[in-house]
Amino acid sequence: MPETKSLGRRAYCELRDRILSGQLQPGERLSLRGVANSLEMSMAPVGEALRELSRDGLVELEPGWGTRVRQLDAESLHSQHVLRTALECEAARQCACKASDEQLAELLRLAESLDKAIDTRSSPEQVSELDSRFHLQIAKLAKAPSLVKALRSNQLVRLLARGSEIAHHVDRPADQHVVLVKSFQSHDPDIAEQAMRQHCLESMRLQMQEAGFGDWLGNS
After folding, report:
1. By three-state DSSP, how is residue 66 classified?
2. Pairing of strands 29-30, 59-62
3. Quick check: 158 and 84 in contact, CB under 8 A?
């Protein structure tokens, strides 16, 4: 059993990376046997990996048809951003109330690294990794494990729409993540929530436009 679990984790990580890098395209069908052969594994750990990817929202399990990589349309991508805004705003409120000045100073250093990576057009992978760490750290400082888990899953789904590539070639507001941390340093939950809401709305606008759904957003 431990060996199967370890293989299942390896299969999960490999498939997740293939999906998020675009090697496996949205809508592409994944046969259990075919995936197992490509990973040189038995079907048991691959089945475990596919179930975990389904829980993350990266693949869809269709009874009688098998599994396919999730395909985001305008409405589903917009819904993910609406969910993200709700989660992030609550995390921001709790972080402003519960995080110590020392913890916020450390978060500020991470924000500075992230903003620098965006400004210097670092690779999408580097920006994505720093952005994920930054936002998950806010949820951790909010001392709400369920928020961390929900945000991690939400991040993965939004990456299906190549969200990590936006910072590589689209102009973004300067010091946007530093501004967020400074709002937390006020220790006022209303100020923190407002700053995070504006951040999330701007992120939604940029990704919807980048994904070709700008007109849909304007008409929704």
Report:
1. strand
2. unpaired
3. yes
CA separation for the pair 58, 14 (Å, rounded) = 13
Joined together, the tokens standing for residue 130 give 């720093």
152: its two tokens: 């991690």
In this structure, which CATH number among 1.10.150.170, 3.30.1490.100, 1.20.120.530, 3.10.50.40 belongs to the domain 74-219?
Answer: 1.20.120.530
Cα–chain center distance at 77: 12
Average of pLDDT values for 89-96? 98
Q: Which pLDDT score is estimated for 159?
A: 85
The rounded distance, in Å, linking the Cα atoms of 154 and 80 is 7
Give the pTM: 0.85
Q: Which two tokens stand for residue 76?
A: 């589903």
Residue with tokens 């972080």: 95
Amino acid at 137: Q
Residue whose C-alpha is closest to residue 16's, from 72, 58, 48, 45: 58
Q: How far apart are CA 27 and CA 125, in angstroms?
A: 23
Q: Where in the chain is the domain with CATH 1.20.120.530?
A: 74-219
- CATH 1.10.10.10 in the chain is located at 2-69
Instruction: State whether CATH 1.10.10.10 applies to domain 2-69.
Output: yes
Give the tokens for residue 218: 């304007």
Q: In degrees to the nearest 10, what's the CA dihedral of 212, 127, 50, 72?
A: -10
